[in-house]
Amino acid sequence: MGVRKKERAEQIKEAKKNQYFAILRNCPTSPRKMRMVAELIRGKEVLKALDILKYNSKEASGRMEKLLKSAIANWENKNNGAKPEEHLLFVKEVRVDGAGMLKRYRPAPQGRAHRIRKRSNHVTLYIDSKEK
To answer: What is the DSSP letter of 131?
Structure first.
């Protein structure tokens, strides 16, 4: 590995140590439906976001709630069990990317077949503290 590439890799690794995040991969929900839920909590305080997700009727909100709890637990582990209420945590960024698709066929009239695409997604959720 070249010197510049190695130095850049070290910089990225150091920057990630100061970020608190959780990743959900291959979630069997379409990215469009998950983005609707992500828009509800983006930029909100963590406890308020948990309440929004808890009482939302969409299926994707249950998965997003679990992911947010995981991100909070990651933050607590790196901060020696500190409480999120005291540090004004908020949802910094939520990224929803498309993942692989399952392709299926459904019978159609006159010997034809229609393709059905069962989409899935990857979600990355970053949280941060307002006080630095």
So the answer is: -
Q: Return all residues near 70 (Cβ < 8 A) that are at least 6 apart.
A: 22
User: Which residues have C-beta within 8 Å of that of residue 124, sequence separation ≥ 6?
Assistant: 21, 22, 23, 24, 93, 94, 95, 97
Taking the model in full, what pTM does it have?
0.86
Domain extents in the chain: 21-129
Q: Tens place of pLDDT for every residue, the chain, 132 residues?
A: 689 999 999 998 898 888 899 999 999 999 999 999 999 999 999 999 999 999 999 999 999 999 999 999 999 998 887 888 888 899 999 999 999 999 999 999 999 999 999 999 999 999 998 875
**Number of CB atoms found within 10 A of residue 61's CB:** 21
**What does the alpha-carbon distance between residue 91 and residue 89 come to, in Å, rounded to a whole number?**
7
Query: What's the rounded Cα separation, in Å, for the pair 107 and 76?
Result: 51
In CATH, 21-129 is 3.90.470.10:
yes
